Amino acid sequence: MQGFAPLSERYSGKRVLVTGGLGFIGSNLVRRLVRTGASVTVIDACFPDQGANLFNLKGILDEVALVIADVGRVDDISAYMVDQDYVFNLAACISHVGSLRDPLRDLERNCVSQLRFLGALTELSPGARVLYTGSRSQYGSPSYLPMDEEHPMKPVDFNGVHKTAVEEYHRILHGLGKLRYTSLRLTNIYGPRHQMHHDGQGFLNWFIRQALAGQEICVYGDGAQKRDFLYVDDAVEAILLAASDPRCEGEAFNLASGVPTSVKEAAETICGLAGNSCRCVPYPPEAVAVEPGDMHLDGSRLQKLLDWRPRVGLEEGIARTLAFYRRYGSRYFHEGRGRVALEASTLGLGASSEK
Amino acid sequence: MQGFAPLSERYSGKRVLVTGGLGFIGSNLVRRLVRTGASVTVIDACFPDQGANLFNLKGILDEVALVIADVGRVDDISAYMVDQDYVFNLAACISHVGSLRDPLRDLERNCVSQLRFLGALTELSPGARVLYTGSRSQYGSPSYLPMDEEHPMKPVDFNGVHKTAVEEYHRILHGLGKLRYTSLRLTNIYGPRHQMHHDGQGFLNWFIRQALAGQEICVYGDGAQKRDFLYVDDAVEAILLAASDPRCEGEAFNLASGVPTSVKEAAETICGLAGNSCRCVPYPPEAVAVEPGDMHLDGSRLQKLLDWRPRVGLEEGIARTLAFYRRYGSRYFHEGRGRVALEASTLGLGASSEK
User: Fold this and answer.
1) Ordered domains of chain B (ranges, CATH)
2) Alpha-carbon gap: A324 to the closest alpha carbon of chain B (Å)
3) What predicted TM-score, i.e. pTM, was given to this entire model?
């Protein structure tokens, strides 16, 4: 009954590859995997501004194999793709506004790289369990709320189109018997190890940054628009449960808390904990095109299947996040800190020993 | 009341760009456009085996500007993309089986090239009316029949994923006010000027080829699977009506006859006209993965909106197609005839005068 064993039993001794493993969710996932006793390889391209940060793996760098490369560079990384039991495929460019500025780059870094990577993976780790992290942006503006997995997919930016296309690559390869996939469509994950030097990803973390900098939090519009927030530790647990549960194979699920909260309420929760204030400002022009209004997902299908519920409420999660960045903010608040490609490259490919 | 004027009034004197204009549907469209008095520019990459054939424009080559180039080579073709009133964006790789053999090539030729092309188009012909030809393969296996435009999109091959992504590019650019698009999702168009040297596209035309070669027609499976066929002249009329009708702007429609017919019945209709015979054979292994069973579209939404109905029934359409290839088959039956890139290149870019 693999599906019901504790996580440590499911992953201990397993060979696990995490793409995007220096990023926000990826690094939290890697840290949890290392604690289970998995043998973890991390591949990360360290593209500027995407969130990769070597500090995210501080303290466990000796326990993982780290490869600094785009997942599309299969000739360079193939040695690290062999005989993996699990692949957590998180590598992606995730900027919505950025994809409108440079759609071709978004296409290259998402679809082209992923198609190369998945093609090689089916050869090097045939039958691997692959978990892909999709995005609520695949749905676009809501036709109804909460949005379930059957909601039409009409993304409002190129990034949403490409995130869907890559999910579809997984589904098609699954249908051809070449890998075993699950897709989890994420929405508003927040918490420690998120980049904090620009506001292009994860506005809740950006609010926390503003609070810690002693600034007023700027809420777009009237702040009444609702979102569903999920603390990263909860997201990581669900990801690990889903990837190792055979009942999740071959399907896409929403991963969501199921607790819609207004943006203003979230900002006020931060203010209550951090002692600063917030105010409403008009949407900037380039955000208008990708602003969906109320937007929250129905995560009940996955929650029921896994018998999983989030454990960390919004106030507790924000408090933990504030505590993390109060201690380590200097590693995240400045652009140079997020751009670790050069620093990491000096380690060489896979410099750390595999367990 | 532009929407209700005859086609000749809608297109006479207009600057019209047709991508993929040496191919099957594209060339039939170009011939019709030239008759309306439009000023037509054709761009075609002449990729091998995709159907481009210089003979398709025989007799009107002096009346169009012809550019042999991939639509993604925007630096080479930009001079031909300026101030177009209408763009019929038919250029695509459309092999389902081929996309499983070489997904990256399918991605490159469809998504990458189209994203480059559309980006340039929004600069060079801002506000142009753009008609994109999608495909029934975007839907994948039917959840219900006939499949309407709301049917989930779960294609069974990479080509279907990429055809959808390119449709989405049009929709997003429309939403941003950068072009005015309509997408028509086509299904089983047949008729003159289709390539006839391999069976990777358009099985009805391939049946006709077998009949003309005096071979038995090979029907896969028991032949009971239903399809909806549409004669190319009817498809061209609907394409021209939709592109010039403001009520079609910003939406995707099925273009279908609405008359499901079994594959065996279609084969027997050919046999009745051509005097040969047909037999059922097992599906070849690589066709199984992309075989959806019964598959026909609900085309009523577009038919009602345009007050358009197909005029050419299956028997009449097959008779016309047989007559065309009896006369010109030598131009279509051999591989070399379909690969016109070199021959056309000797004409130079845009060798023919613009009207």
Assistant:
1) 2-193+230-259+297-310+334-345 (3.40.50.720)
2) 39
3) 0.91
